[in-house]
Amino acid sequence: MRYEFWTADVFTDRVFGGNPLAVVPDASGLKPEQMQLIAREFNLSESSFVFPPESGDHDFRVRIFMPTRELPFAGHPTVGTACVLAAAGRVKLERGEGKVVLGEGVGAVPVTIHGGGDKPYFAQFTAAQLPQWGASPPPSEILAAMLSLDAPDVLDDTRDEPQAISCGMPFMFVPLASLEAVRRARLNWEWWNQYLSSHWAPQVFLFAFEAETRGVTAHARMFSPWGVSEDPATGSAAAAFAGYLVRRERPADGTARWMIEQGFEMGRPSFIQIESDVNDGKPSSVRVGGQTVLVTRGHIDV
User: Fold this and answer.
1) Where do the H-state alpha helices sit in the chain?
2) Are 91 and 79 in contact (CB under 8 A)?
3) Concatenated DSSP letters for 163-204?
């Protein structure tokens, strides 16, 4: 059968920035092993496949695949898939705004979409799960060696310390002392295999509270063992990062907002907006958003 696909660059306002995504907006009839082969063929961080809803709590069922495995949830496919569905006319925009609920492995994920026409789309999703903390990280000196850094490059004090957090996908959050240290980091896979491969949070999200862009909260990178060694923009990590930031900054009850830049070292600058509603000093809702640019449209025979 012939299936239509779209590609888009997510968390950017320009082509060849952000995180590329392939979307099959009507994947009816595809089997999991076929979707995995297609994702491997595209060879992007993730590819998403859209199906009719499986229950009344969502409008579309979305399955997300890396080149090597299926994921229960991912941020840039959620944002990008919603924008592609709007561009394809499957989500209606009224006065430039539309809403859709995507059914993913973690549950129902509501998404609000803005834009269209000759401008980039903007989409913001509400995380289906609030931040959850997992097992304790390895010692900071181990993390530093794993990132090919010196021990003082990894912060480990009462305000900033490594933490394992998940909003459906677990990440090891590693705060670094400087932007220069983030740029210098290189993942040592032998150390990763020894100390982190079997950890609850094996994906590494390193960051510094120093950025290249004015008004940005943190400069980040993400190393993953699955499919791609480094990710240009990681929305699922951004959702969990809200938990880190609320615990670190202790904002007053209300809505707190931050911006992450990522992908600069890969030549794919990305900007991820984060919001968290805070009640009694804890996140009560987390939202992640960014812009999407449509790039290509074609067909694949399966």
Assistant:
1) 32-42, 75-87, 140-146, 179-184, 189-195, 235-249
2) no
3) EEEESSSEEEEEEBS-HHHHHH----HHHHHHHTTTSS--EE
Can you read off the two tokens belonging to residue 1? 């059968």
pLDDT in tens, 117-131: 777 899 999 999 999
Chain segment 242-267, per-residue pLDDT in tens: 999 999 999 999 999 999 999 999 99
User: What is the homologous superfamily of the domain 2-127+291-301 according to CATH?
Assistant: Diaminopimelate Epimerase; Chain A, domain 1 (3.10.310.10)
Closest CA to 185 of 166, 170, 207: 207
How, if at all, do strands 270-279 and 282-301 pair? antiparallel
Q: Please spell the DSSP secondary structure of 84-123, one letter per residue.
A: HHHHTTSS--BTTEEEEEEEETTEEEEEEEE--TTS-EEE
CATH of 132-289, one of 3.40.50.720, 2.60.40.3080, 3.40.630.30, 3.10.310.10: 3.10.310.10
223: nearest Cα among 260, 192, 264: 192
- Check if 190 is active-site: no
In order along the chain (302 residues), what is the average pLDDT of each group of 10 residues? Answer: 97 97 98 98 96 97 96 97 96 93 97 85 97 97 98 96 97 98 97 96 97 97 87 97 97 97 98 98 97 97 94
List 33, 46, 249, 265, catalytic entry: 46
